[in-house]
Every structure is written in C-alpha cells, then in structure tokens.
Amino acid sequence: MVFNFKQFTVHQDKTAMKIGTDGVLLGAWVSIAKNPYSILDIGTGTGIIALQLAQRSDAEIIDALEIDADAFEQAVENFELSDWSDRLFCYHASLKEFCNEIEEKYDLIVSNPPFYTDNYESNDVARNKARFTSSLSFEELILSAAKLLSEDGEFSIIIPFKEEENFIAIAKKNKLFLNRICRVRGNIRTEIKRSLLTFSFCQIEIVTTSELVIEKERHQYTEAYINLVKDFYLKM
Question: What are the helix (H) ranges across 30-153?
Fold first, then answer.
C-alpha cells in the first residue's frame, strides 16, 4: 500500500494507522519561520510529518520516535527511500526511554499523538497504541516536550477540539504557553473537529488564532486548504 506525494512516497502496509488528514495538516501547518536546526517528531508512524518537514525546511537533524516495531521499520524504510535520508533518523523506543537517554534539545517538536480516551479499545494492540491515550497520555507528552525543547523552541500538535482546553491547561502547568492556534472544520456546516496548537516557553499576550475549513462541498476543497497542502498532494 503506497501513498505518493509530490516529492516523496510513503509505504504504509506495515503500520496500524494509515495516512490521514490530521498528520498532513500538522506537517503543512507547523511554522518553520525560526529556521529550526533540529526537529523531533514524536510518534512518527509512517514518518509522514517528518518527511513533510524535511521537504519544507533546511533542518540538519530531523529525528523521529516510534514505539511500535512495525511502524518503526516502515518509517525507516520511508526515510531511506526519500531524498532527505541523510537528515532523517528514527528511534525505536518509548518516549520515557528516549527522554532518559537523549541529552540534546530540539528547536521544533511535533506530534500527532494518540488521542482517543473513550473505552472502546480493540483487540489490535498496535492500533490501540496509535489511537488511544492509554499508550501515551497528554501529561507524559507535554512533560517530555518541555524537557526536550530548546529555550527558544516550539512544540506543535494536532488534537481533537474537545481536548483543547484541557491540553492548554496541562501545558501551562509545565511552563509551555499557547502561541498559535488553528481550529479545523470538515465543512462550514459541521462543528469544529480538530485543534492545531503551537506552544513555547514564551508567554505572549496576543495568541494567533485562525480557523480552517477543509471542504466547501464533498471533494470540493476550500482555497485555504488547497494553499496549505498543495506542496504535498499530487491532485492539489
């Protein structure tokens, strides 16, 4: 199973969670205005976000972390097949293990984390790891990001809108402050579904807030969405 983008190809036959809109949205939305030297993608899955940031940035170090063995192998394969294999590296470890072993700080940390908190986990262990917060809580993710982030670095994430207020509160307790937010709707008639958030150690008075609507009608995309992802999708 292969997903072709404009500048790279992603194989996803080994991973529990396939490429979806969330990951591509985060990889396209996250700011690289500070020209990060080092980037970390927590829970990389197929490696899609790390690959997007390799395409978009000149970062010399782009590390990815993946706990699932099959997904780790898939990400490594996708990195090696890309034009940026010399800048991409994947670690096979839990976030806790990684934090205990790594002394480096990252200028940009990104994550499309597991976020389902409801009690309907399946019998598929790999899929549960990718989907449910029981495998990586928001508290652990934020605490680790605060530890791994450089002084002037940024931490960006995509989560369900219903989790936004709670996530921002937990981040604030760990001295990570909201700097930028974009709320996402499927179309203008639907409720807000996702929140794209960027945090840093800098507490600013004016938070940059925006809203993104993906579709005008079924398979008719808005200009804003097209402009955001056109560098990646073949048909945009």
Answer: 48-56, 69-81, 95-101, 125-131, 138-148
